Amino acid sequence: MSWIDAILQGTLLGGQYALYAAGLSLIFGVMRLVNIAHGDLIILGAYIALVCVEMLGLHPLLSMIIVCPTMFAIGYWMQKLVLNKTLGNDILPPLLVTFGLSIILQNVLMEVFSADSQRLQSGVLDTASLQLTDELTIGWLPLICFVTAVIVIASLQFLFYRTTMGMVFRATSDKAEIVQLMGVKKDRVFALAMGIALAVVGIASVFMAMRTNFDPSVGPGRLLYAFEAVIIGGLGNIWGTLLGGIIIGVSQAIGAQINPGWQQLAGHLAFLLILIFRPNGLFPRTKD
Amino acid sequence: MSNHVLNQPILYTQKLTAFYGDFQALFGIEFHLNIGETVAIIGSNGAGKTTFLRSITGLLCNEPSSVKFSGQPIGASSPDEIVKLGIAMVPEGRQLFPSLSVEENLRMGSLSGRSGQWDLRNIYELFPVLKERRHHGSMDLSGGQQQMVAIGRALMANPSILLCDEISLGLAPIIIKDIYRALPAICSEGVTVVVVEQDIRQAMAVSDRVYCFQEGRISLEGRPDELTTEAITHAYFGLEDAVS
Ligand SMILES: Nc1ncnc2c1ncn2[C@@H]1O[C@H](COP(=O)(O)OP(=O)(O)O)[C@@H](O)[C@H]1O
Ligand SMILES: [Mg+2]
Fold it and tell me: Taking the model in full, what pTM does it have?
């Protein structure tokens, strides 16, 4: 029974990782940009949520109403003012600039909020759980997080394949120069994509901050999970990202079941194994 | 060939130059386009034809006054602004969006938001085969059909000027005939057309006026009936070939 429990808890944890990864996947899909600052942006979102909760007395889940639009605006302007200038035929400048952003974010957060560990208290949600059988219980918070991840991924899928904006995203991903000949400002498309990606990051931030302690230095760890989920699922495949998150979550839970110290290691091992056997991920995007 | 040409330039270039880094690809191009006419640009590979079209559409930036459209300087405008003014291009190599279906590719063309005659229904009338295949991926189509999508996509912008870069390249003669059959219908909608064409005979047959490019300069300009084969050969291949 404990194995089933591990798989169940791991799956739910995978929803959290998928939320980390969805924004990264979107950005890579639209503009071939690998955002090294992604993890630190998750932490930034968590601090914005912290401020909302402490100053306005909002429940953490409700703080998303402020966190997500704020993160959207940050993403939009960060792309427009900084990152668009780095995009070109060379992949090195955006890597270096987002690496720089990552360090700046960490230091600014450290300066403003100190290195103290923080956590968002979510009241009854912290402990409330659902009894499935005598031995199986799942926490409401992980369940809400997982369901949210599924809804976010489905919405992104809908946006990408069923709306005009999504059509423009896909076209820009194919041929950014030609999109301009259609009357579209490609810089604006990139800024919108980054805005949407960071709005999703905002959701991930709030769940992370409710479920684990965080401080300004833990961003790169989230980036790693997000990377692994994106690559396992296949670059540019949105549903694959959810599956990638679940695979890492389940591997970690199984690893922890065998030996509590193996949780992280098991997740990275699963990632390595999949890379060895399927270097392009499980579901690579075929139309290229 | 259109018979409603007005002797009134809708577009002209003045001392237009273009550079790729240190390499100069165009030298002081003086070109004009009258409302309603069909102009062909010929010239050997690397003569600068594509570079010229890219300069007009804003993909290459220039002095503002080096390109004028309806009297307005557009040389420094961005591609999205220029298509909104009414200049659309069928780019060299078609450049369809592979992730998009045929119909989505066509819809991309209408994003410039210009109203006019051309909509999906008209494009499907012009190229019926595209209607049958509208939900296919654009890469599932034959070369000729892909070219029809590229032309349809440009028309969806309801342009007043349509620039076509080598629309017959790599296609079988019978397909080329099919594609050029659409030209009169396009012109009769009042669209001014520029075709870049390697096939001199094809260019002469469809155009009111011809420009020949050679090594980044205009080496010849005239009406097809005025130009002798000798003059064209000379303008096309240049002096070195005449000597050797
Ligand atoms: N992206 C580029 N970078 C550098 N040189 C280029 C580029 N594109 C074209 N050229 C050069 O510019 C000249 C004109 O090219 P192009 O306009 O493509 O000619 P055409 O369309 O008449 O075949 C050629 O010498 C070509 O090598
Ligand atoms: Mg060319």
Answer: 0.93
